[in-house]
Design goal:
alpha/beta; Nucleotidyltransferase, domain 5; 2 domains; five-stranded mixed beta sheet; 11 strands; disordered N terminus; binds 5'-O-[(R)-(carboxyoxy)(hydroxy)phosphoryl]adenosine; binds zinc ion
Length: 359
Amino acid sequence: MSILNQVKLNFELEINLPPVMSKPVVILGIESSCDETAAAVSYNDKILANVVATQKIHEAYGGVVPELASRAHQLHIVPVVDQALKQANISKKDIDAVAFTNGPGLMGALLVGASFSKSFALALNVPLIEINHMQAHVLAHFAQKEGTETRVPEFPFLCLTVSGGHTQIIVVKDHFHMEVIGQTQDDAAGEAFDKIGKLLHLPYPAGPVIDKLAESGNPLSYKFPHPHAPGLDFSFSGLKTAVMNFLNKEVQKDSHFIENNINNLCAAVQNTIVTILIKRLEQAVQQTGISQIAIAGGVSANSGLRKALKEQKGWTLFIPPFEYCTDNAAMVAITGYFRYKAGLFNDQNSSPFARFQGL
Ligand code: KG4
Ligand code: ZN
């Protein structure tokens, strides 16, 4: 018998799965796929607590260092969960299930969240629910912030998910059926912001910094190319190379070129990335006939993107609250709630995956 089979047998535990939906459902959500350690508590579709510990340690390295991320998750996970439970005013015995990000993400980082969640669910004798991080970004649109009533999209809708690791246009058919109709062939949109920000000597993550500096710059001051990609796909690595070549040339003429033109450079880079995203979305709307548009992922916080979307005629827009855009556990808890209602549970044999495998 293989070791895996032995493990499987040893973990055939008796968990009494609850009858589907007879009382309100409380989910503890855990997110640890990259550099945010996060925990949230949901009560049906209401988010009672959403705690995020962002790992500052990576700033010094200009990008996420996987080994350091795992260690930081290990350090933060218990205090973050403790704080979420206190904020939600929920005792451990009120939790109906533990939902956790199972991938895609950094393997070492995912393992911390997965191990914690398995142990917690085991100790409480409640079901465990695996969550696909990319699906959770989309379903963040259904999370209701306590005290507010957020308008939610109707199925089917299109979701532009733009983060540090992914750039996708998704047809969302229902809570569990989603189809990727366009994606990046190389760098993600957030990665483009971050890598170009590094060339501009900006701190990591550069996306929000570029956004801020672009406010007082002219988006048309420099023209950068739109790299070619087929169909509804994207390509951003050529943009980074074009900006690098342009900067090298200008810095040879004026060593202070970057500092002296930082606002215009940021505005032009942001405008290029936003224009590429909007053009593809326009094509997607035309192809699918769907004009309900949702945005998700860290880059959806970008003010240039939000402005450009609002200028589109005939689109119904869904933009989640800022704290549900970047990595968070509210999106994990709400996805867990939908899976719980559908009776979709996992067991202790679950094991994280690093690469995107579909939705
Ligand atoms: O979704 P997220 O928090 O983590 C991933 O799953 O990747 O996204 C992080 C990405 C980073 O690349 C960051 O630079 C970018 O989102 N980002 C932004 C803004 N805020 C975060 N990019 C552009 N403008 C922003 N305001
Ligand atoms: Zn993310």
